[in-house]
Amino acid sequence: MIVLGLSSGTSVDAIDAAAADLTLGDDGVLRMRPLGHTEYAWPRALRERILAALPPAAVDMAEVAQLDTLVGQELGRAGRRAIDDVAGGDVDLVASHGQTVYHWVVGARARGTLQLGNAAWVAEHVKRPVVSDFRVADVAAGGHGAPLVSVLDALWLGREDDTTGTDGAPDAGLTAALNLGGIANVSLVGRVDDPVTGWDTGPGNCLLDVAVARLTDGRLAYDEDGALAARGTVDPVALAALLDDPYFAAPAPKSTGRELFDTTYTERRLAAVRPGLTGPDLVATLTELTAVSVADALAGHDVRRVVASGGGARNPVLLDRLRAALAERLPHACEVVTSDTLGLPVDAKEAYLFALLGFLSAHGLPGTAAGEHRRRATGARRAVVLGSLTPPTPLPWQAASGPVRRLALANTPHGLLPGPRAKSPLTGSTKGSTR
């Protein structure tokens, strides 16, 4: 089955599209052949309306209804173009994440989540079935609905058996799959039959992007190659005030978004200690905040490798600061690589995730990995099939007859990932499942 994934992240910088040919074998190995990926810029006026509707803005229902339609139409146009641009006109299913505008979290629980981009408009443009609204079913089952990427990370990066370290002793370390989008999230993956832990660590690029746009009067949308941060000096007082946010100390699973780390966040947190902090020093401090908050989140775990993706993975200063922070907090060496080196482009991993989730949903398979304490990695009480189908007609393919055990990328460099045969944290049935 060829599935096109459409995604737009917290930064609302572009619509990402990726197509993959997915085949589930009798051995439980789901083989994914990436066909290509691209991105399409949001129309400027629509992007400004989306950003204006994000917290802490107060928005009336007329604007919500109009944005749901306009976002859906734009996602549909992007999907129609992507079918030709990256899939040669041949796509069976479109998986559309939509645009998150609100993620409702109270204390340690997610209460709801809202992604705009009505799937009927997407289906009208692409003339294919569309799976959308992926997060709500997990929230209804007691999960956070985020980060959903842990299912991809578990199937892709889980090792079959304990490997041997350079000293000949068993190496049972974890791989941390890190997404540095607007919000940073991480999945901790060990063996394929081990529970997976996934959570949002805090701000990725969202605070940085706001600061850079203001400092450059909108000429720059982000700190390209970390150039501004490289010119600045981290302010330790400001960094301490930012890190003092209770979110960083809260246990996983947890999720966050612009509801907490909004456009006024930095100014509010620094008002009492560094109200005048600006320029490259502010950018350097916010870069350090992302690096340190990620490293602090990983410090209590036996992480031996970090696989980074998302826009922040293109920022060499951020990655260097992350390496330094990890070296200070971990008692052993930890390699930091990008997902490019393992076969998934850093800019398209999220879009490929939704292609994977679309395939799983279409075949009646749950879209979350097993977590700790008989729960899912998102904190949900049970495994659920994610998403809704538009139009709600019988699918032209059969439901899967067995579980997915592994994910094998057709373009993964030989020898970099473990073999396919193993038990999996992803169950093939939702009936009575708690793992």
Automatic annotation (TrEMBL):
UniProt-annotated binding residues for ATP: 9-16
Highest taxon above the source species: Bacteria
Keywords (A to Z) from UniProt: ATP-binding, Carbohydrate metabolism, Kinase, Nucleotide-binding, Transferase
Pathway the protein contributes to: Cell wall biogenesis; peptidoglycan recycling; Amino-sugar metabolism; 1,6-anhydro-N-acetylmuramate degradation
Keyword Kinase: yes
Catalytically driven reaction(s): 1,6-anhydro-N-acetyl-beta-muramate + ATP + H2O = N-acetyl-D-muramate 6-phosphate + ADP + H(+)
Gene3D superfamilies: 3.30.420.40
Pfam families: AnmK (PF03702)
Residues in coiled coil: none
Cited InterPro entries: Anhydro_N_Ac-Mur_kinase (IPR005338), ATPase_NBD (IPR043129)
Documented EC number(s): 2.7.1.170
Primary enzyme class: transferase
Gene Ontology BP term (one): 1,6-anhydro-N-acetyl-beta-muramic acid catabolic process
Composition bias, Polar residues: 426-435
UniProt key word Nucleotide-binding: yes
Region of interest (Disordered), ranges: 411-435
A GO molecular function held by the record: phosphotransferase activity, alcohol group as acceptor
Described function: Catalyzes the specific phosphorylation of 1,6-anhydro-N-acetylmuramic acid (anhMurNAc) with the simultaneous cleavage of the 1,6-anhydro ring, generating MurNAc-6-P. Is required for the utilization of anhMurNAc either imported from the medium or derived from its own cell wall murein, and thus plays a role in cell wall recycling.
Family statement: Belongs to the anhydro-N-acetylmuramic acid kinase family.
Protein's recorded name: Anhydro-N-acetylmuramic acid kinase
Organism: Cellulosimicrobium composti
